[in-house]
Structures are given as C-alpha cells and as structure tokens.
Design brief:
The protein has about 130 residues and is an alpha+beta fold. It contains 3 helices and 8 strands. It has helices at about 15-25, 60-70, 85-95, and strands at about 1-10, 30-35, 40-45, 50-55, 75-80, 105, 110-115, 125-130. Strand 2 (about 30-35) and strand 3 form a beta hairpin. It is globular and about 45 Å long. It binds zinc ion.
Length: about 130
C-alpha cells in the first residue's frame, strides 16, 4: 500500500495552478472532468505521490458542498491498494461506512471507493486500485 494522492478542494483549478504549477514548479500530468462526481480534476505528480486539485462543475456536487461548508482545503487522502475488493471486504467486516456501496471508476480509469469520515477518524479516505 502507498500514499497515492492528496485531494485538495479549490474554487478554481486555474487559480490553484498559479501556486502549484507556476509558483512551485509542479507539472500537470492529467486534467479532465469526472462527470458523475461533478468535478474538474488536475493531477500534479509530487515525488511518489500526487496532488489532486478538485473544482466543482455543478453546484450540487460533493466538492461544491464541501467548499460551501468548509472553504478551500484538504479534502481527502488516497491510498493505493493491490486488491480493492479484498480491502473493501475487510472494512465492511469491521462495520465501516463507505460513501458509495459500489466501486467507482475514476478520471484515469482506476477503480476507487471512499470510506466515510465517520468511519475513518474524521478523514475522508479514498482507496484506489490501478
Ligand atoms: Zn482523489
């Protein structure tokens, strides 16, 4: 298992890139819209991990609601696992709450689920499998 990325909620990816790309020199490796999540995503490799910038594209998306309640900031931590089904099975066995019951398909084709913060010590935890 390894840290895959940190998800950061922003009002504007373009504005955030002024810091991460123009100010800090990180490259943008992927940029696109995840329709079913209502977000525009930019992925910036940072060492072995990445920073994922998330801008809402619809007012009722989870990121839009997060920005409304808490403002810009760290949104989730993503860990890469070898076997997502097995990991989900273990967490369900512990009675942990997932945000969606079904495994989702992400921006770059990887599979993922979110573990609800109420079941993960206050952290929204994304598990991904490539
Ligand atoms: Zn993520």
């Amino acid at each position: 298992m390894k840290l895959d990325h940190l998800g950061v909620a922003v009002r504007s990816v373009d504005q955030a890139l002024e810091l991460y790309r123009d100010g800090l020199g990180l490259a943008v490796r992927h940029r696109g819209v995840v329709e079913h999540e209502g977000v525009e995503v930019a992925m910036l490799p940072a060492g072995d991990a990445r920073i994922e910038l998330l801008e809402p594209t619809t007012p009722d998306s989870a990121i839009a609601r997060f920005l409304e309640k808490r403002g810009e900031g760290l949104h989730h931590i993503a860990l890469e696992v070898d076997d997502l089904e097995a990991a989900v099975g273990r967490l369900r066995g512990q009675g942990r709450r997932l945000v969606t019951e079904e495994i989702q398909i992400g921006a770059e084709g990887y599979r993922y689920v979110f573990v609800h913060p109420s079941s993960a010590g206050g952290v929204l935890l994304e598990l991904i499998e490539r």
